[in-house]
Amino acid sequence: MIIAITGMPGAGKSTVAGALGGVGLRRIAMGDMIREETSRRGLPLDDKNMGMVMQELRGKYGAGAVAELCLQSIKSKEGEAAVVIDGIRSIAEIEIFRKVGDVKLLAVLASPKRRFELLTSRGRTDAPPNLEGFRSRDARELSIGIGDAIALADEAIVNEHISPDELADAALSTATRWMRPDGT
């Protein structure tokens, strides 16, 4: 099974993926693929460059380009109970993953205010420098289809008035249920 996680930037996808990884599920972060390609090109790891690289890859190789980069890692360890894919941004990516396994899509939701606070507090180099940069990043993500992925998720968790531990617990509960033979 592939447990795919989607959500707008800062919604809590990495927290969810980290919780699932913490119980032994292998985690593949799609954003890491973009970071690696950005670094390979010798560009600083900031939102502008990473966004440009992501759009170039999708423009050149299609909407599922980043998912295709992840496939080798998934195929290398067949027989696992589940693999966690952190950072789904389009339905095309889901379709790529469905070629190699059963996919369940979990959306992590949070308001723009909450997401901006989380993004600016985590200290990553790709954090938006200001509200304008945040809005621009949201527009870019929506333009590549993340809204469709969120809308078509199998389930969603709202990360609004909960702690990181509560978010992790909700994700673990959902994933555990999905991995049961009857899926309930």
Strand order of the largest sheet: 2-3-1-4-5
- Fraction of residues in β-strands: 5-15%
CATH superfamily: P-loop containing nucleotide triphosphate hydrolases
Strand and helix order:
EHEHHHEHEHHHEH
CATH topology: Rossmann fold
Q: In which range does the helix fraction lie?
A: 40-55%
| Second CATH tier, the architecture | 3-Layer(aba) Sandwich
Q: What is the number of E strands? A: 5
The number of helical segments is: 9
Description:
- The structure is a single chain.
- This protein is an alpha/beta fold and 184 residues long.
- The chain has a single domain, classed as P-loop containing nucleotide triphosphate hydrolases (Rossmann fold, 3-Layer(aba) Sandwich), CATH 3.40.50.
- Helices cover 54% and strands 14% of the residues.
- The chain has helices at 13-22, 30-40, 47-61, 65-75, 91-98, 112-121, 131-143, 146-151, 164-179, and strands at 2-6, 26-29, 83-88, 103-109, 155-158.
- The protein has a five-stranded parallel β-sheet, sandwiched between helices.
- The mean pLDDT is 92.
